[in-house]
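To make this tangible, this section ends with a sequence with its structure tokens:
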Amino acid sequence: LCYFGKAGFSHVSSGQVVIDNRAMGARSVKTYTEEGRLDDVLAALERDDLLLMQFGHNDANAKKHERYVTSEEFEERLLRDFIAPARARGARPVLVTPLTMREFDDDGRCKIAFPAYRDAMLSLAGKEALPVIDLGRLSAEYNTKIGAVACRSLYLWLPKGVFPHWPDGSEDDAHLQTNGAYLYAGMVAEELRKYLY
């Protein structure tokens, strides 16, 4: 979760745009709200700020009861807890569908991750006339283009004995290396430009 506007927290400034990244790992729409993190975001929002919301990964994990919400509840919570209060402050909500995992089908196509949550965001965007950046589709298309092996350089696939935090290496198909994070952030920025100009 981040917003574009004036920031009171640590932030990145790029020309006329200030990016205030309020994302927190392992949070769902439920836990982000329950922990009071959303209250801080809403308190800082000003008129015409853009509020980008990307959830779905942690919301979909039924094994983590503290995070889990159904796709129907996901849509309801986004509207009630995030979109409506942001609009009440004059901010402009933007939905971002969940980034895909490094998961391929037998035909070599990268699967769109968390499809029910992606669909909920697309549905909500249509009903509420909201901009939506379909990062799920964009990332899956890119991963399909470069292939499953090349995708390892984007995700947290690391060799043994090279990185101190991962002495045994890693084969993580969900989390990103720095170059993957920059690549997918660039996709979001490029799509966002269409709504700004």
Notes: The CA atoms of residues 22 and 40 lie 9 Å apart. The beta strands are 2-4, 12-14, 17-21, 50-53, 92-96, 132-133, 155-158, 170-176. The mean pLDDT is 92.
